[in-house]
Amino acid sequence: MADPLLNILPEVFRTAAHTNRPLQALAAAAADMHAPAHRVLADLPEYFDPYRAPERMLPYLARWVDLDWLATGVPGTAGSVGGTLRPDRLRDLVANAAELSASRGTAGGLRRFLHLATGVPGFSIDDVPGAFHLNVAVPAAAADQLLLIRRIVEGSKPAHTTCRIEIEAAGPEPQEPEPEETEPEEAGS
C-alpha cells in the first residue's frame, strides 16, 4: 500500500525506502490514513446519483436542486405525516428536479410534484380562470400526507394565487360484473 505514495516522492526517498525501515513504516502509515479518502474518491459518482447516494447525502443533493425546503421537517414532527419526505420520495424528486423546475407554476407541474413526493397518483388541480385560485383534490390514498401536500402546494404555487386543498372521498370498490343469464335455445327450431 505504501508503493503508490513512494512513487510520488523524490527519488532520494524512493531509493532510501528500499532499506530504511522507519521510512517504509511512515509511508505505510500515510497510505493507511489516506485509504478512506481514496475509497470515497473511487466511488464518487455514487454520491451524486440520487438513487445510489447514501441517505445522509440526500439533503445535500436536495439543496443543489432547490429542494432543501422539503428535505427538512417541520419542527416537532417526523415522517411524511409531519410534512417531511421519506428518503425514497426525496430520491425521486431530486432525480426529476430539472423537469419539475421547468414546469414550476403550472397545474401539470404541481400535479407531477405531488405525485412524486407522495408516491400516490391521481391528484387533480383545477385552475379557476381569472380568479387566481387553485382547487387541489387529493386522492384518499394520500390523506395521511396532508401536511406534506400543503407544504408543497404553498411552496410551488404562484405567490399571488390562493388555494383550497380537499381530500377526495374514497370511491366505491369496483365490483365484478355478474354473469349474464342466457335462456336455453329451444330444440328443433
Structure report:
This protein is mainly alpha-helical and 189 residues long. The protein has 10 helices and 3 strands; from the N terminus they run αααααααααββαβ. The longest helix has 22 residues. The protein starts with a helix and ends in a 22-residue tail after the last strand. About 5% of the residues have low confidence.
Features of the shown structure:
189 residues, three-stranded mixed β-sheet, mainly alpha, rod-shaped
Helix vs. strand class: mainly alpha
Strand content: 5-15%
Regions with little confidence, pLDDT below 50 for 5+ residues: 74-82
- N-to-C SSE series? HHHHHHHHHEEHE
Number of helical segments? Answer: 10
Helix proportion range? 40-55%
Q: List the strand order in the largest sheet.
A: 1-2-3
Gyration radius (Cα, Å) is 29 Å
Subunit arrangement of the protein: single chain
End-to-end span in angstroms? 96 Å
> pLDDT average, as an integer?
83
Largest sheet: 3 strands, mixed
DSSP, total strands: 3
> Tell me, what's the shape?
rod-shaped
